[in-house]
Amino acid sequence: MRSNRRLRWAVAPIALTLVVVLAGCSQQQLRGFLPAGSEGATNHTSGITGLWVTSWIVLLAVGVVTWGLIIWAAIVYRRRKGQTGLPVQLRYNLPIEIFYTVVPLILVLGFFAFTAKEQNSIEHVVKDPDVKVEVYGKRWAWDFNYPGVGPGGNGVNEPGVQAQELENANGSVDASKIPTLYLPVNKSVQIKIESRDVNHSFWVIDFLYKKDNIPGKSNYEYLTPTKVGTFKGKCAELCGDYHSLMLFQVKVVTQGEFDTYIQSLADKGQTGILGPEYNTNSNLPNNTVPSAKK
């Protein structure tokens, strides 16, 4: 009877704490502290959010059970006044051994299955996307190509420069000079991701996904932007001195605004594709010397 009473006193504060914490959660906390702008940003973000939130809820439950058992064992089996020697030992308890073997196995298999399912959805190849773009990472900026559009269907391009820090602005940068990738809303997009020099990683934060830029290799990302807006991006792979200034942004716009932007690049003479001939690694496959435009 005394042990049951003590157990209740040990469990009650834990339960009360959980109730208070969960009741005070904001919407962002309920979404697992994911970026606020990620909700509905692409056709993949809801699935990624669901996987993430479900995972931490399950793991939180596991943690609560584990902490509860630790506290319970520490209270119930503590050395009492006047006791000497070791407390009663418990060995070869088959139910307990089955429990701590089977439950973790189920959790691992469950996490693997749901993660693989979501990854297959994200990595699904769209055979005939509405829009194709090419992204080249370079120290320490980004080049964006839009193949198959513009005069003669030869494509247009937007060469990027490194983010420029503002003087006396505590590390702020000039947003007007950050490389910008334009995408039309509600259109399927294929993004071809490459590197001109070292490993980089193309990461649009609110899209909840990143893809590595690897020299000599083309990676692909498929998505459909579903929310108009401007989304921040950065390199997520340490790539040298100015890695922190390798920033960009993605503007998801209407089809009309996208077409106007493509035409503006053509009007500025930024036609053609900035291809692998501009890679700084001279030993990469298929590299050639850039020729001057006539």
CATH superfamily of the largest domain: Cupredoxins -  blue copper proteins
Order of helices and strands: HHHHEEEEEEEEEEH
Q: What would you report as the Rg, rounded to the nearest angstrom?
A: 27 Å
Helix content: 25-40%
- CATH topology name of the largest domain, in short, is Immunoglobulin-like
Describe the largest sheet: 5 strands, mixed
Strand content: 15-25%
How far the N terminus sits from the C terminus, by CA atoms, comes to 94 Å
**Domain module tally:** 2
Low-confidence stretches: none
Q: Strand order within the widest sheet? A: 3-2-1-5-8
Tell me the name of the CATH class of the largest domain.
Answer: Mainly Beta
**Distinct helical segment count:** 5
Q: Averaging pLDDT over every residue, what do you get?
A: 87
